[in-house]
Write a structure and sequence with these properties.
CATH architecture of the largest domain: 3-Layer(aba) Sandwich
Structural class: alpha/beta
Number of helices: 8
CATH class of the largest domain: Alpha Beta
Number of domains: 2
Number of strands: 12
Distance between the termini: 46 Å
Shape: globular
Largest sheet: 5 strands, parallel
Length: 228
């Protein structure tokens, strides 16, 4: 039985072939694109669950594709795993702020790549139970099933990571979590995180919450909590 559909977007033929071979061997349905333009044409027809996306592409680059996917209601639930030769923290934060779900630097181990892919797709399969029930805090409505957050009558356009962090904290009101604990809860314990990447996502989230930004509190020297 074939597993989920994965689109690999990579302009280096050897790397594209390597990734495609290893993912196909794991049973995934894999298609490849060598440019951003080609990827955008393929996505509506192929309808992948995950896109492995090279940062530095000719023409439309990886960040532009990520921005497009996460801003579109029809594609914003597609997982995005960014690959790049740039081991730069500020650039990693840029990708996460746009809604990328994971980030790996080249060169990489195919086994690690497959583990990251499995972890991303496994999170998509989790559902049901209390975690899918809507949360209501005054005029803030968080609906995990619909992946929607409303503030009064306004629909907030959150990135995937902003939504996950808000939902996690709001599900444990009053509890204080370190940055590492937050990331472990929403990404898995094996995900490498920096304090700045979590802080940057929280800053973006607070801006979108506007006059309800005080709901996400900073606990100095520890981390963050959702106001009880």
């Amino acid at each position: 039985m074939l597993k989920e559909k994965i689109l690999v977007v990579e302009d280096e033929p050897d790397i594209l072939e390597l990734i495609t071979y290893n993912l196909t061997k794991e049973g995934y349905q894999v298609s490849g694109a060598s440019s951003g333009e080609q990827a955008l044409k393929m996505i509506p027809a192929f309808n992948p669950e995950l896109v492995v996306l090279d940062w530095m592409l000719p023409g439309i680059d990886g960040l532009e594709i990520c921005r497009f996917l996460k801003a579109n209601n029809k594609t914003n639930d597609i997982n995005v795993l960014i690959l790049t030769a740039k081991d730069n923290e500020s650039e990693m934060i840029s990708g996460l702020e746009l809604g990328a779900d994971d980030y790996m630097t080249k060169p990489f181990s195919p086994r690690v790549l497959i583990a990251r892919v499995k972890a991303l797709l496994r999170r998509n399969q989790k559902g049901g139970g209390d975690s899918e029930l809507p949360l209501v805090v005054d005029d803030l409505h968080i609906h995990p099933g619909k992946r929607e957050v409303r503030l009064g009558n306004n629909l907030l356009r959150l990135t995937n990571m902003e939504f996950r962090i808000l939902h996690f904290l709001a599900s444990h009101q009053g509890w204080v979590y370190t940055r590492s604990q937050i990331v472990s809860a929403i990404r898995g314990e094996d995900y490498a995180v920096t304090d700045r990447s979590v802080d940057a996502i929280i800053v973006g989230l607070r801006k979108k919450l506007e006059d309800r930004s005080e709901l996400v509190e900073t606990v100095r020297g520890v981390g963050y909590r959702f106001k009880e």
